[in-house]
Specification:
The chain is α+β, with helices and mostly antiparallel strands. The chain folds into three domains: 107 residues, Probable tRNA modification gtpase trme, domain 1 (Gyrase A, domain 2, 2-Layer Sandwich); 86 residues, Aminomethyltransferase beta-barrel domains (Alpha-Beta Plaits); 88 residues, Elongation Factor Tu (Ef-tu), domain 3 (Beta Barrel). It has eight helices and 17 strands. The strands form three sheets. The chain has a six-stranded mixed β-sheet with strand order 8-9-10-7-1-11, sandwiched between helices. β3 and β4 form a beta hairpin. The longest helix has 15 residues.
Length: 332
């Protein structure tokens, strides 16, 4: 990531690539009831124009899919990471035995994004309605609306700042990106830059931090669970963990010391615990600061000095604030 890109992300606005997400269209009269019986959050309590984050779990309570659901009067849009739409839609449909429910990857809808404190100003310059965007901002994360012909927007927080996902046909989203660059000076944040910003913000990603090896509260998805709702796949395990007040792992940010970079999978050691965890993601920020995300044993506290084993090398690091990650259970 360039220093200019990081500055624009936090002081102005940047465009985030459309290929990082995919959309599932869920339709049918039984869509709310069926989804509510499968996922961790209470989609039945979400009104049209709002949304929620949720997870689809295995029967053992491990994460099978990371979902963001956007409810409308006639359908539910489910946003997943790239490559996950088709398998997730197929998994959901397998549970629709006698239900009026259908889920499919909506390849005609792609997602871009504009993030940064001046996102509304920059989008207004290319003709998108300021009042609608201001309303989405006021309503908070995952509020969404159709704001122009073939343009859907959702208020989001990502890469450590606020902004909007923007969805529509590929040619519409590509044209909007071109107009933002030409008329509003909005530069594209390259994939490496977006990944570095994500890691620095402590945001988990599917296949890196979020995998089928962990419970949702271990990988920063505590806010995706509604403990008051009815039954869903894997609920018994999740409630048992809550009641016992114990998880083994937690997602933590690391500040690296020195010029060496770890790789995903590198082992982490701490004082008194030779197997303290593993690295899941790592990057360098402008100016050379190294940052990483790691799944660490819950005994490793904030501020602890740790050592990362990278081949024959040892990389020192310190566990930084949890910022934005919610373990979701009492750590006593």
């Amino acid at each position: 990531m360039t220093a200019d890109g990081l500055a624009a992300l936090h002081d102005d606005a940047v465009w985030v690539d459309a290929r990082r997400r995919e959309v599932i269209a869920a339709v049918g009269a039984d869509r709310v009831r069926l989804l509510n019986g499968l996922i961790t959050n209470d989609v039945a309590a979400v009104p049209p124009g709002a949304g929620c984050r949720a997870a689809l779990l295995t029967a053992k309570g491990h994460v099978a899919a990371d979902l963001r659901l956007f409810v409308d009067a006639d359908d539910i849009k489910i946003v997943v990471d790239a490559g996950q739409a088709a398998p997730t839609a197929a998994t959901l449909e397998r549970y629709a035995i006698m239900d009026d429910f259908h889920a499919r990857h909506d390849a005609d809808m792609v997602l871009g994004g504009v993030f940064g404190p001046r996102a509304v100003d920059r989008l207004t310059k290319v003709g998108l309605p300021h009042d609608v965007m201001a309303s989405l901002e006021a309503r908070g994360p995952l509020a969404h609306a159709v704001v122009a012909p073939n343009i859907w927007m959702a208020r989001m927080r990502e890469l450590g700042t606020g902004g909007f996902w923007i969805g529509g046909p590929p040619e519409v989203v590509e044209d909007l990106e071109r107009r933002l660059a030409a008329a509003a000076g909005v530069a594209r944040l390259d994939p490496d830059g977006a990944e570095a910003a994500r890691i620095a913000a402590g945001e988990p990603r599917w296949s890196a931090e979020i995998t089928a090896d962990y419970f949702p509260m271990e990988v920063g998805l505590g806010d995706a669970i509604d403990y008051a709702k009815g039954c869903y796949l894997g609920q018994e395990v999740i409630v048992r963990i809550r009641d016992r007040g114990h998880i083994n792992w937690q997602l933590r940010r690391l500040r690296l010391r020195g010029d060496s970079d770890p790789a995903p999978g590198d082992a982490v050691e701490s004082e008194g615990r030779p197997r303290a965890g593993r690295i899941t993601s790592a990057a360098r920020l402008p100016g050379g600061e190294g940052v990483a995300l790691a799944l660490l044993h819950t005994s490793v506290a904030e501020g602890a000095e740790v050592r990362i084993k990278h081949g024959e090398a040892t990389i020192p690091a310190v566990v930084s604030a949890q910022s934005g990650l919610d373990a979701g259970v009492d750590q006593r």
